[in-house]
Amino acid sequence: MVEYISQFLVDSGLTPLILTRGYAGGDEVKMLERHLRGGPVKIGVGANRAATAALFLDKYGCVDSSSLRSFFDLHERAQVWTISEKIGCIILDDGMQHWSLSRDLEIVMLNGLNPWGNGHLMPHGPLREPLLALERADVAVVHHVDLITKQSLRDIENMIQGFKKSIPIFYSKMVPKYLFDVKNARSHVALEALRCASVLCVSAIGSADAFVKSIEMTGAHYVDRLDFSDHHLFEAEVTNSIAILHVLFPICFTAKKLFLLNQIGFHQYHNDKCRMLKL
Fold first, then answer.
1. Residues spanned by CATH 3.40.1010 within the chain?
2. pTM of the predicted model, to two decimals?
3. What is the pLDDT of residues 10-31, one digit of tens each?
4. Would you call the peptide bond into 123 cis, given omega within 30 degrees of 0 as the criterion?
């Protein structure tokens, strides 16, 4: 979503600055850098996001807020904008709980497969804030709507609107695009390579269900899974075991882990059965 919003802003003629803490050796940061390479998007990493933002604003300057309205006039978006290096918008990656920074717009994203967890806050459950926090959200996005029933989606909508009736709700789904080699992130391998194959899905993300289901929908004959916790730091012992497995049958990783796997030398085991999935 951060990548999508960043590209939308660039298409609108604005240079965005993404602020992130940079968890787990920077796996998400490296993924964003890889996907946004060559564009005007800037990425600031640091626990103190206000200080990080200040450094970038001092270096590049910022767009006058009074001129921003024209950027979002849908009739004018067809024009070709000359993008300035000045920062026009700041995106906080995973920033709803970052109270030290004020914000103009808050977007809450929900996993449609498990939107409320067990109803408890961390560490007793997955919620980072009570559901009452929905009252201050400006936009809600429900993910994986293609994997849930219409009734489940209505229940989620009713819950959200029970806290804030006027909130706009958007919907998204995970769509596999292609596979690429661990050694070469720019390579493209058609999803047909998985058809009728036995595949092991390896992931270290918050919810792996949608990733696994997306592989199942490619027509793979048999799909198994190896789930690690979000931002898991792969160690050599684990990757050695995975390397042995990928000699036997194809393995799909979530692309988020490409940087960390290469850092610990996983690419040395690479053969044509080990791929990353671009979503």
1. 1-93
2. 0.80
3. 988 899 999 998 766 577 888 8
4. yes
